[in-house]
Task: inverse folding
């Protein structure tokens, strides 16, 4: 009797649900977080400032730091710009509120992302 093993190559897609959050700064900046509940590495943040094109931020790492911080950097832009989300865990469901900090290299804003319907 002969046995045959076939090895599949490639990775399986991870299952996750996008949960939308919004935050605003006092200077008119609108941030939208597409939180990938179930696979945090697929999350992204869009920053919209008045009439300018939106700027996209993606996680530097696919997993949060041990302290719960998750750093996002712009897909294109300066290395000083970043957003840090606090209290992130791949093991818990998406929370109702996510705290964070936006730093544009000159000024830092404290952010409160709240779940939104869109």
Result:
């Amino acid at each position: 009797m002969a046995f045959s093993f076939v090895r599949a190559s490639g990775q399986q897609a991870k299952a996750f649900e996008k949960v939308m959050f919004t935050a605003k700064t006092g200077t008119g900046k609108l941030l939208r977080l597409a939180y990938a509940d179930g696979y945090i590495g697929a999350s992204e943040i869009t920053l919209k400032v008045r009439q300018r094109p939106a700027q996209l931020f993606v996680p530097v790492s696919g997993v949060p730091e041990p302290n719960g911080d998750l750093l996002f950097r712009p897909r294109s832009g300066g290395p000083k710009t970043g957003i840090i989300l606090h209290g992130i865990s791949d093991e818990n469901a998406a929370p109702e509120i996510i705290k964070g900090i936006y730093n544009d290299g000159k000024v830092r804003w404290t952010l409160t992302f709240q779940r939104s319907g869109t």
Observations:
- Residues 59 and 81 are 13 Å apart (CA to CA).
- The chain is about 0% helix and 45% strand.
- The mean pLDDT is 84.
- The longest strand covers residues 29-37.
